[in-house]
Design goal:
3 domains, Nuclear Transport Factor 2, Chain: A, 6 helices, 29% strand, alpha+beta, NTF2-like_dom_sf, three-stranded antiparallel beta sheet, 291 residues
Length: 291
Amino acid sequence: MAMAAAINFSGQAPWPHTCSKAVTRLARGTLPYKETCYFKNNSRRIQKHGLSVKRKAESTLFRDRVPVIVMSSNSNSNYWLSNSNSHSVSSSPSETINKFYTSINSKDLDDLREIISEDCYFEECSFLRPFEGKKEVMQFLEELTESMGENVKFSFGHICEGDEYTAGVKWHLEWKKSQIPFTRGSSFFECSKGGDRIIIKKAQVVIESPIKPGSLVLTLLKAVTSLFDEFPKATEWFLSSPHVILHWVIKIYDKLVDTYINPLLNSYIKLWSLPAKIFLFAFKILHHIFK
């Protein structure tokens, strides 16, 4: 006995093929039977055991997402589409970072508190010192959400994951979906397991500088490196304790401002206050005359 099979796939002409070796000894309806028809490229097959049709992916790009169409042969003739890669996805650093920024946008401090570790180390390069511990980090995030108001939101792109629960993301700030200049930045996160979820252990945030010195940066870099090479011991001492030196520079600056700059500015303002009042009075007279 010979059985002929022909199937029409979308966009292709019928491809007839004859299957020999059909089983003829079994009485019809007594036992389940199985017949398989292989095509020339061995990429599609019809398997009659119930009835199912499988299609292998022709591109290796989609090898992990092979759509499998299963057709029931019962009287109801139900059809459904399943994905071979469908499964429950566990928590990951990218999900945690996504929740971090969406929670800031929605001002949900409770959700933020859940994904910040107790020993979190948050380094924001706009500040002189990092925020250490959950309490300091949450205080900073609370002030951040308040300063953003109702219309400013974080807009972030793809979140890239690395090894050992690390992730990075680029972002910028938007006001009513319009990008705010000089607010681009990048954030890098180190996460860890915290019970049944991934939490943030360390973060480093780098923000775009509003000052664009251009080639002046290279000139300054050349001058600084020349000084470093000229005085290596002083350079080693400076690099080993930059925060201490910066602290003294700030103290000297404050003393200088309080002693000289503030009095000078106050006298300058007082000096120009009288001409400003005279100019305003003259402007009001002219406005009244030509009205």
